[in-house]
Every structure is written in structure tokens, then in C-alpha cells.
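User: Structure please.
Assistant: Input sequence and predicted structure:
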Amino acid sequence: MRIAVPKEIKNNENRVALTPAGVKELSNRGHEVFVQATAGIGSGFPDEAYAKAGATILPTIEETYAAGDMIVKVKEPIEPEYKLIKKDQLVFTYFHFASCEPLTHAMIESGSVCLAYETVEKEDRSLPLLVPMSEVAGRMATQEGAHYLEKPYRGRGILLGGVPGVKPAKVLVLGGGVVGTQAAKMAAGMGADVTIMDLSLPRMRYLDDVMPANVRTQMSNEYNIREAIKDADLIIGAVLIPGAKAPHLITREMLKDMRPGTVLVDVAVDQGGCIETCTPTTHENPTFIIDDVLHYCVANMPGAVPYTSTLALTNATLPYAIELAEKGWTKACQDNAELRKGLNVANGKVVYKGVSDAFNLPYTDVDEFLASTAGSMSVD
């Protein structure tokens, strides 16, 4: 198969979808790999390393898209890339369709096959390609939140861990999944007073057992959230519904109950956000203020630490990329239920229910779709 890795062009996105080691693995199996010039430079991988591993370096993004049967990316295609994606071309990346209707329609119209990292799902319902970036984003949420609590950024001017004789900051984490757990772990390590809210009693029992004494759990409901935000210094939104929009747990009118300088970090912003007033921002302009409450809503937080993020992501994605390359997407998705759940949009049809529901689009059952396309794709 011909596999192409374009350079990410989203604002301040420095990750790359394949490392030289990944290129070597694919090349050793007889696949052709094309990498756009400087695609890996932001993560510390020069063109020479890719060439030595067996990749062909292409000078432009147009040539790179044109070369691939499979496009491997990190972030969802943005508008300048829409026209570069061809009918029947497999695009393997994060899509987060439910938060972006224009992207959804563009991919439907392209006739491409969109396999989303974030909905590849194991039998135990874990999300193996979302977990690595969730771990990074969760830890970064606390790191960035602590930074923006400083007074020069119009935060409350409070040190997360306090000092002897002065109480630490109060951190509220909404969601006890991977992001929330990592955020709470970082906040606890910095000495903060941490509360994690979740809907699952088994999950809270687990967190109660493994977390240090300065982390407590509480049932997530509107009443408890309204009470907790009154004296929270840092609030981290870490709610995920795979492939669908996140629910708004904090509404606009709830901001009036927060103290001036409170910091909100919404890690779910690329799925619509769990804080109503959050809209996606960039690393260049990461924050805005509404009602004296500071919002940090960067949609690609792990892009700020690309070396760590690229290695963590490619460790997880490479085995799936190899399977797709070896078998072709149709056979791979038929054989592997995890990959099958990653199919969102294919050949003009929406085959993931969460995307269909988000925009009231016609839905095609993925198993019926795969049965109808069996044998239509071959592996080069």
C-alpha cells in the first residue's frame, strides 16, 4: 500500500503521524511511505531520518495527498485540505466529527473513507488511540491551569499547592476517566485540594482507593456542581462521550457563581466542550475571559509538547496502521471489531451513530456497509 504522511497545518500543531521508526516498520513490510518535507521537524524528526528509514520525501502537501492510498494524520483535515482528499482514499486520524458539521459534510462529499482514532474501541470499551493523548491532555490541563491562575494572566493569583500556613488551591475535575484521572493526579502531586466528580460509583470507588489523601470523589449532578464551583479556583472539564458531543455541565449563567479569576480548562472542547462558554482556541491565543472567569480552550493541547505526544500516539496507532496497510481497510475492519468502530464516514455514507445523531444525517449500519463493499478494495 502507498501510505502518505502530510505535514499538519492546524495552528501550532507540531505533532506528526509517523516516526522514522514507524516508517521503517512499514517499509520492511513492503509498503511505500511518502512523507511531506519538514512534517516531522516540529517533533524533532528531520527529513533525513525519514529518508534513511525508507520514506520518499515529497515537497508539497498536494503531492503528498496525491501519493497515498492511505493518509495518516494527527488532527482532522481543515478547510484547505478538503479538496486534496480523494474518493476511496482512506484517512486515518482524529476527526471529532460531532463537533464540526462542515468537516462532516466535506468528507461525505469527498467519498473518502474516514477512520477516526477517537472511536476505535476495544471490547472493554476503552479507547486505545484516544488514551495516549488523553493522558497528555489531562496532565497538561493542570499544568496550564496552574500557569493561568497567576495574576499577570488575570487568574486569582493563587499557587496551586499553597505554602506552609496558606491553604492550597481548590481544583474541581469534572469526569473521572483517563483525562480526569491524569489531571487529578497532577493536581494532587502539586499539593492542591482536589475533587473529582463522576457518574459511576464503581469508578469513584476505584479512584478513592488509588488516589492520595488530598483527592476526594463526589457524585456528579447539577446541585453538587453548582455548590463546588463557588469556591473552586481551577475547574477542569474532562467529560467524553465517544464520537458524540459532550454535555454542557457548566452553563453560561453558572459563571456568576464563580469568583473572579477562576480558571476553566475544557479538555472536551474538540468534542463541543462540557462548559457552555468554551469555544476552541489556539496555542497562539489560548485564553479569553467571560464574566471575569478565564477560559483556556485549546483544541490540540498535546500539540504543545509534540515530542512526547508524537511518541505516545504512534506507539498506539502503528499496529492499527500496519493492519490497515496489510489487509486494506475493508478486510481489516471486517476482521478487527476495534477498527470497525473507528469507521465514521465512508464512501459518502455516515456509518457511526454519534455523527448521524449530531447533525440529523442518514445513518448506515457499519456491518451492512462493510458487507456491501466486501471485495471492492484490494491491497496494492
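Residues 2-111+305-373 form a domain with the Rossmann fold fold (CATH 3.40.50.720).
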